[in-house]
Amino acid sequence: MSTSGPPFPGQMYLYDNITPPLLDGSYRINVNTDVTIDGTDQNLPGASNYFNVEGPRFTLSPALVAGVFPPNNGHGSFQDNVPHIALARRTLPWERALDPEGLIGTPTSVAGDPPPPTGPPPWLGLLLFEEGEYTILQGQQLQNVVPPAVFQRLGSPQNITCDAVQVGEWLLSAIMPSIEELTVLSHVRQVNVDDKELSAGSSDGWFSVVMSNRVPEANSKYCACLVSLEERSDLVPKDPPPVYQYIFRREARPEIAAVNTGNVAEGTRQIGISPIPIRGPFPFDITVSLVLLYSWKFECIGPGSFRDLMQALDVGMYGTVQNPGHPPVTDTGHIQVSLGDRAGVEEAVMYRGPLVPFQLTRDPLGPYHSADQCRRVTPETGAEDVSYACAFEVGRLLAAADARLAQELMRWRREAYKQSARADTFSAVSKAITLAQPLDVHAPSVPVISASATSSMVKGSGPLADRYGIGFIGNVIGLNPVAVQQAFQLGSAAEATAILGGDGGSLGAPVTAPAGTDRPATTLAAVAADTASLNHLSAARDRLLANASAKVGTP
């Protein structure tokens, strides 16, 4: 599918899968360089290096979970919805191979069936369990979760811990998706996040989605488990389970005359049957464990929309009789309600909602910092109007209920406090010292304050020749090109500038070596025998010490 850009708000692009360039695992890279000089091949020795591509395997960070449906701890009518989980990384379900050794086999093709889905099957699966069908185990050793053969194929080190979900083998074999079903149960979505309140600032709009092959039933509690199916060829079936069709057939049979027979057939022996106590688990009680990456719970409460739930509320539980009438509404859309103030005194106030039958004039007195600042007095009745105060409080509570917004607000307040404290410090410094230029809270201030303080200290002795000390630093032996040229007897100042990093273009210029010097010396004995170079180095050291003493003064 080719797209020219991100989808428009309210739209999405669907992809079967997005495979990464490299799957998770260990790799070796070989580098060979072939050089031809004047028609002659000059092959350089090759080099090899090893690297690992690692991603989530036995644990999954909650930051990679973009959302789940049904929501965590949700209660609602979910019997018509397929549970699914959205992951923040688009390639995550295909970053590992489900069956790299091909132990599962190729699905059986039947004539007349649609073509099999293309693309690699994901290594993640979303399984839905009803309450009582599963047991979640935390902090388990990996070798105790998977069979020994699977643990050996995983190639993982010892003492790796993970969470696990334990279910009955008979149940898992009934609901485990086949290899073809796993392929179609995962896909990638590209959405426009500009109209998404929680994802606009931290997402690029790409999500991988893993769906379950089981839908919930009404009046039941469920747990959706995202599990790892890597190397679990012992659990993932090659073909989906058969779909049985029941055909009922009835045939007319001739009537048979009733024959009076005894309660017990002749020649039979009656044997009493008594219950046998279970002294151990039966074979059909075998359980299977899978690596659990993420899970959430919800409750399906059956059919019923929000309107149905609101109409079914039992108002009699409040202990008051419902008023069959409606409160009088003024021309401005206000109704009179009773409000208890902080002292506990009941007072009559006016309130209206955001929808009124006429155009309103925007309130120019904001912004407000508390609900009390929003309270007004209506000129017509003289009663207090709490409409804006209620709206302020509702907005404040909604903002406080949003965890991400609360975190961003606290971060903004901390930064504002730091800048305020910085501004107060600058104000105090400006009053104590005459600054050469105004201070900026967003710019470095130490050089300006230091220069101004130094100017105040030497005030009256003439202007500073080197306000920031840059001239003095430039004249240090190791930083001045001319001094370096003289100390090391280089051919030109450009060579010294290139060595100091001042002119990159001069790095290609030849450097004149002192006479009688054979460079480079290959061994320590050769260095010790090079008397001319050692004498030259000793003379350079003496010149450096002499120049440094002349610059900073001899103690």
Total number of strands: 17
Strand content: 15-25%
Largest sheet geometry: 6 strands, mixed
User: On the 0-100 scale, what is the average pLDDT?
Assistant: 76
Q: What count of structural domains? A: 4
Put simply, the count of helices is: 13
Q: Radius of gyration from the CA trace?
A: 41 Å
What sequence of helices (H) and strands (E) makes up the elements?
EEEEEEEEHHEHHEEEEHEEEEHHHHHHHH
Helix content: 10-25%
Gross morphology is flat
Distance between the termini: 78 Å
The parts where pLDDT drops under 50 for at least 5 residues are 270-274, 503-513
Structural class: alpha+beta
Write the layout of secondary structure elements.
Elements: E1 12-15, E2 25-37, E3 40-53, E4 65-69, E5 74-76, E6 84-87, E7 124-130, E8 134-141, H1 142-145, H2 148-154, E9 161-168, H3 169-175, H4 179-184, E10 186-191, E11 206-211, E12 220-228, E13 287-300, H5 306-311, E14 335-340, E15 346-351, E16 376-377, E17 384-385, H6 387-401, H7 403-432, H8 446-457, H9 470-474, H10 481-488, H11 493-500, H12 524-529, H13 531-552
Parallel strand pairs: 5-13, 15-17
Antiparallel strand pairs: 1-10, 2-3, 4-6, 6-11, 7-12, 8-9, 9-13, 10-11, 12-13, 14-15, 16-17
Short summary:
The chain is α+β, with helices and mostly antiparallel strands and 555 residues long. It contains 13 helices and 17 strands.
